[in-house]
Design brief:
The protein is an alpha/beta fold. Strands 1, 2, 8, 9, 10, 11, 17 and 18 form an eight-stranded mixed beta sheet that branches. It is globular and about 65 Å long. Bound molecules: flavin-adenine dinucleotide. Flavin-adenine dinucleotide binds next to helix 2 and strand 12.
Length: 420
């Protein structure tokens, strides 16, 4: 197949004038080779980003991504597109800030329009105690080099006047704002990384399910797939909601539970929501897509599941949250709902680590916040795979932290995955 060229304004002009005959598929469709240096299991955002950084930053040429379905069919194409780095704890904040910085240069880096939009993330507070907690969080963010601003009700009203400020039960008292946060077109992230990795020689193999690991004398030597055995020097798993099932095939039991999270999109409306707004007295968050649809979500469905569809009680709960926060939403018609499988860890924080099996590495436990982590997760996992040492921003994300009591419990919810 002829190699694809780069994307640019000039190229669009030239193709437009010559009948658009020069475009090529954004990535190849190669047959799996019998052996690679690195096999990445899972072609979601994290797996593709890992392959991209392995090739682009660590100069690794022999890399394959094995995806059981199609690129973008998992959570990377199902999330509500929010990016931010508004974390409190030292284990988390530097990592998520690193990720936000990578988002800021991503489109130029991968030469793909991912519609990175830093339209701001507003976390609303509804009481003095919540304001104080947000002030602490904002100070922690600033100390770690992120941006944060605390708005009072009058300042917030000037920016988002339609919120339910005078609601007797949950009056909006202000917001912690991260102006560099925002949204990114989710599936374009998968396509951009896939294309960037493919251009650097990575084989992206779709419809290739990993069914087992070949482990000899404590060392992983490759993966069994529905397309045959593929040998690898190192195997990295980034399968998000399928983490427990896939790692079970390597004899591991993870501190992770899978739950469904649903997303909702309304009919297209004129621009009304300036950024991402999160309700502080319930679980509801909302933004507006560039096509005009209101994109919103809330809690996970509170039962364990591997299904990519959710249930009615959470739909009702999310809509109630929306109506409490901005009653005008009741006029909008909902047009799409879907679900994704969340890999909920016991402290709400992720894992990027080696496993007890030599040559086998694990990336997961992203809960419902892994989209924003995609660039840093890929970078740090690539670093670990290439160097066998954790990246400096991901040293806390160890697999054995639950045994050692070194939890990174951002929300103080305890070992309850459905509360994170
Ligand atoms: C509704 C919803 C809203 C969300 N909103 C946000 C948000 O606003 N902000 C945010 O930061 N995060 C959000 N998230 C979370 C985020 O989407 C995930 O944490 C993140 O996408 C997970 O990483 P991933 O992209 O690699 O996962 P995925 O895209 O799910 O990739 C994993 C891949 O592994 C593949 N796979 C599984 N088993 C195998 C196997 N045996 N062999 C080969 N391949 C296999 C799957 O097919 C899948 O493609 C949301 C998630 C959902 C579902």
């Amino acid at each position: 197949m002829k190699k694809q060229g780069g994307y640019s304004g000039f190229r669009i002009l030239r193709e437009g004038l010559t009948g658009n005959r020069g475009w090529r598929p954004a990535w190849r469709d190669p047959e799996p080779q019998p052996a690679y240096d690195f096999v990445i299991v899972g072609g979601g955002g994290h797996g593709l980003a890992t392959a991209y950084y392995l090739a682009s930053r660590y100069g690794e040429a022999s890399v394959a991504v094995l995806e059981k379905g199609w690129i973008g069919g998992g959570n990377v194409g199902r999330n509500t597109t929010i990016i931010r780095s508004n974390y409190l704890l030292p284990g988390n904040e530097p990592f998520y800030e690193f990720s936000l910085k990578l988002w800021e240069g991503l489109e130029q880096d991968v030469n793909y329009n991912a519609m990175v939009s830093q339209r701001g993330v507003y976390n609303l507070y509804h009481s003095d105690a919540q304001r104080d907690a947000y002030r602490r969080r904002g100070n922690s963010m600033i100390l770690h080099g992120a941006d944060a601003e605390l708005l009072d009700a009058a300042q917030l009203r000037a920016e988002i006047p339609f919120l339910s400020f005078d609601n007797a039960r949950f009056p909006v008292r202000g917001a912690l704002v991260q102006r560099r946060g925002g949204t990114v077109r989710h599936d374009a992230v998968a396509w951009g990384y896939a294309r960037g990795a493919d251009r650097r020689g990575v084989d992206i193999i779709q419809n290739c399910e990993v069914t087992g690991f070949r482990i000899q004398n404590g060392r992983c030597t490759g993966v069994e797939t529905n397309r045959g055995f593929i040998s690898a020097r190192k195997v990295g798993c980034a399968v998000a909601g399928s983490s427990s099932r896939v790692m079970q095939a390597a004899g591991m039991r993870l501190p992770i539970e899978s739950h469904v999270l649903q997303a909702f999109v309304s009919e297209g409306l004129k621009p009304v929501i300036p950024g991402v707004v999160t309700f502080g007295a319930g679980h509801f968050y909302i933004s507006q897509s560039d096509k005009g649809g209101l994109v919103f979500g809330g809690d996970i469905d509170m039962y364990n599941s591997y299904a990519q569809r959710g249930n009615l009680p959470v739909i009702e709960d999310v809509c109630e949250g929306g109506m409490t926060l901005m009653p005008m939403i009741g006029r909008a018609r909902m047009v799409r709902i879907w679900g994704g499988i969340m890999d909920m860890s016991m402290d709400g924080s992720p894992i990027i680590d080696r496993t007890p099996v030599d040559g086998l590495y694990f990336n997961g436990g992203w809960c419902y916040g892994g989209f924003k982590a995609t660039p840093a997760s890929g970078y740090c996992f690539a670093h670990l795979l290439a160097t066998d040492t954790p990246h400096e921003t991901a040293t806390a994300f160890r697999l054995d932290r639950f045994r050692r009591g070194m939890m990174i419990d951002e929300k103080g919810s305890g070992a309850q995955p459905n509360l994170h």
